[in-house]
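Action item from last meeting closed. Structure (765 res):
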């Protein structure tokens, strides 16, 4: 009886415990999908006036090239990455997938798994009616799993047989179309007035979109105000880098639903800052826009225009010292000007460059997986690096890899600009009759090093160096006696050592000009000095908003290409100052009429008259060789039209044979300036800019190579001679014939002298 009572008491206690567990609320550490919607609604309802925006991230933009994904048995995963700005929060996220699975997959056993930041958030079970067909599905993602930087990983679990499967079987595949997209709804967040997070929110590294940052003036800015804005635009451009940047200019008004930069002095300021206190020093301040707590203003304040320049220099040189809502710039002392070709974004040309200096993010030189993803590096070179007679570029390559089990053809392939260069076998590790005596940090990785010579003529301004570790994995699905052996695939680890290096030192700088491709892709010749200390920008008096936008976009683009702000650039609206300074000239606007009265610059006027001349032969690109006869003007055509027209022109400076002029011109209509600015922002349109003149219309960009060329840089006379002979085979053949004839004559004379001497000796005897 006592035993029965004990069992009954234990049963009651267990039932009570289960009842308590059943009514306990879910732990906050284990979120459920049902709670996702209320959280999103609560975030929106907390501030019904908070602005919302929709963001559509197409796979064609965020997925690895070409935008579609091919999931295979040996490469079952792929991913996209996106960021969320610090002043926004995601309230809704929908993943719209367009996919086609292999018809050989087994239904139900095959699935597509979706991970958000390594948290499984969705599962697509493949059914029989989906196999081999294009399918659409929409998956709701929990916004609580979305952070600053995010990764959505898609993983295929594919099966084509119940037993004895081979993961490398070609029937295991699922293709995800580039029309797939991620739909986000983002809500603005109110931010504190704190400069310690600068350059946020004006520029956010999490935002992969092109930077759009309006700049506001009270009225048409003075030269010093333009210079201050140009310096700040180039600094923001150096931060934006590959994203692209544009700086719309506004006079005495703020943009709608955008952060903005405002330039103001004590005596000249926009109307909305009339009540703002005066300053006694160069000042940088962050405040909310009037009536809008979600949009900020970066105030560049000063007693006069010189203070504005000092304030911008303080931002560019001391951003880490900014804090609080207001910071004053007590002093900025610029040291020595930058040396030629030392732009931070360019490969060093005065010494060897290590791969550690070329990396752009952490772990860029590592990869892992059953088939590791390629490792890529970008090489930005000065456009005038003379590599014509170079035998090759030396590269010391040090790499580590998990060795294959056997000699199976695994290899490392090196590609330059998508062209195959060289491959090296991945050797298996010989561990027979060996004891492990020490445990190193790279245990299990095979070390190797190679010296590779890169063909110089295959290099351009922007180059992509890619390393593919291709493993020939062997899988056993069955044996001859009918037994089935299951082999679990083992991932591989590969590393390109940071101490690997490439050597571009010792080469001269010499380039044929004009070359608008060098300007469009590298800001050359102005970027030769990263701080633009050898650049003079010629602007029109009383510039309009579109002209100012062109100025800021051009300087911002150069900052993005060099990685350094234009702290020493000079501006002038007096065209006569240009001939007094030994600088490269960047012209923005139109050629002033008073220049035509100067006899000393008739060359400039003649060049302006020949911009629309058509050459005898027009190549498709600037890579095609073209002699002087092909560049001769075939006809001159003048056409009147109502459509907008812009142009980018390059020609030799009339004041110095080693200096160049690049003119950014428009016909005066606002649409023409928009076409010019968008062409410089769009990488595809910018790729069509080359030669000596680029015509920009609604239909796109058309480039011409017309007129005489000139050379910038220095080559010794013997290298110039060899270069001329290399580019003119007829002269090379003629010189070879002359050398052979001279050598034959000298040999003939020598033999005659020897014959006469021998005959004379015989006569003496």
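Sequence:
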């Amino acid at each position: 009886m006592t035993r029965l009572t004990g069992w009954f008491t234990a049963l009651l206690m267990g039932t009570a415990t289960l009842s308590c567990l059943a009514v306990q609320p879910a732990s906050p550490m284990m979120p459920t999908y049902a709670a996702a919607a209320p959280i999103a609604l609560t975030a929106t309802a907390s501030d019904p006036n908070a602005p919302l925006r929709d963001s559509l991230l197409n796979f064609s933009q965020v997925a690895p090239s070409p935008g579609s994904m091919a999931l295979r048995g040996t490469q079952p995963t792929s991913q996209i990455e996106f960021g969320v700005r610090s002043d926004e929060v995601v309230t809704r996220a929908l993943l719209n997938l367009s996919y086609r699975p292999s018809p050989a997959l087994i239904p139900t056993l095959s699935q597509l798994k979706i991970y958000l930041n390594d948290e499984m958030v969705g599962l697509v079970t493949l059914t029989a009616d989906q196999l081999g067909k294009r399918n659409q599905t929409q998956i709701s993602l929990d916004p609580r799993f979305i952070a600053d930087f995010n990764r959505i990983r898609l993983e295929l679990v594919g099966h084509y047989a119940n037993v004895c499967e081979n993961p490398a079987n070609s029937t295991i595949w699922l293709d995800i179309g580039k029309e797939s997209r991620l739909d986000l709804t983002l809500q603005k967040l109110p931010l504190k007035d704190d400069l310690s997070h600068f350059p946020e929110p004006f520029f956010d590294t999490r935002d992969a979109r092109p930077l759009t940052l309006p700049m506001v003036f009270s009225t048409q800015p003075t030269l010093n105000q333009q210079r201050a804005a140009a310096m700040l635009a180039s600094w923001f451009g150096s931060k934006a880098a590959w994203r692209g940047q544009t700086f719309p200019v506004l006079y005495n008004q703020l943009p709608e639903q955008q952060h903005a930069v405002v330039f103001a002095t004590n005596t000249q300021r926009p109307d909305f800052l009339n009540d703002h206190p005066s300053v006694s020093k160069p000042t940088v301040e962050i405040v909310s826009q009037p009536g809008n707590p979600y949009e900020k203003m970066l105030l560049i304040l000063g007693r006069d225009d010189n203070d504005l320049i000092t304030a911008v220099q303080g931002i560019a040189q001391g951003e880490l010292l900014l804090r609080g809502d207001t910071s004053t710039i007590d002093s900025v002392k610029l040291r020595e000007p930058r040396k030629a070709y030392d732009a931070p974004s360019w490969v060093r040309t005065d010494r060897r460059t290590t791969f550690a200096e070329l990396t752009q993010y952490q772990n860029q030189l590592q990869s892992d997986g059953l088939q590791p993803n390629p490792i890529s590096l970008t090489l930005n070179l000065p456009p005038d690096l003379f590599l014509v007679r170079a035998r090759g570029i030396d590269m010391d390559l040090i790499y580590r890899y998990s060795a294959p089990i056997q000699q199976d053809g695994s290899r490392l392939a090196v590609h330059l600009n998508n062209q195959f260069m060289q491959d090296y076998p991945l050797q298996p590790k010989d561990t027979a009759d060996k004891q492990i005596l020490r445990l190193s940090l790279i245990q299990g990785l095979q070390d190797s090093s190679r010296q590779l010579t890169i063909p110089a003529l295959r290099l351009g301004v922007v180059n992509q160096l890619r390393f593919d570790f291709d493993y020939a994995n062997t899988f056993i699905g069955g044996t001859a006696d009918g037994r089935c052996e299951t082999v679990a695939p083992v991932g591989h680890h590969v590393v390109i050592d940071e101490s690997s290096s490439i050597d571009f030192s010792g080469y001269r700088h010499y380039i044929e000009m004009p070359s608008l491709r060098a300007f469009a892709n590298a800001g050359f010749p102005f970027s030769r000095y990263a701080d633009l200390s050898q650049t003079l920008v010629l602007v029109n008096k009383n510039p309009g908003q579109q002209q100012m936008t062109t100025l800021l976009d051009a300087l911002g683009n150069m900052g993005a290409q060099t990685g350094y702000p234009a702290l020493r650039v000079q501006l002038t609206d007096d065209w006569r100052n240009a001939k007094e300074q030994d600088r490269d000239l960047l012209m923005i606007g139109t050629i002033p009429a008073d220049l035509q009265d100067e006899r000393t610059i008739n060359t400039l006027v003649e060049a302006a008259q020949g911009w629309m001349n058509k050459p005898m032969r027009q190549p498709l690109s600037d890579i095609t060789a073209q002699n002087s006869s092909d560049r001769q003007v075939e006809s001159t055509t003048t056409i009147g039209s109502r459509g907008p027209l812009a142009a980018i022109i390059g020609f030799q400076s009339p004041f110095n044979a080693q200096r160049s002029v690049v003119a950014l011109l428009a016909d005066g209509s606002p649409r023409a300036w928009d076409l010019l600015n968008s062409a410089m922002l769009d990488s595809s349109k910018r790729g069509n800019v080359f030669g000596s003149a680029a015509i920009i219309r609604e239909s796109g960009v058309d480039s011409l190579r017309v007129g005489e060329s000139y050379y910038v840089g220095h080559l010794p006379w013997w290298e110039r001679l060899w270069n001329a002979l290399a580019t003119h085979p007829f002269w090379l053949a003629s010189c070879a014939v002359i050398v052979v004839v001279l050598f034959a004559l000298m040999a003939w004379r020598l033999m005659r002298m020897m014959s006469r001497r021998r005959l004379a000796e015989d006569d003496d005897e």
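Note appended to the action item: The CA atoms of residues 475 and 488 lie 9 Å apart.
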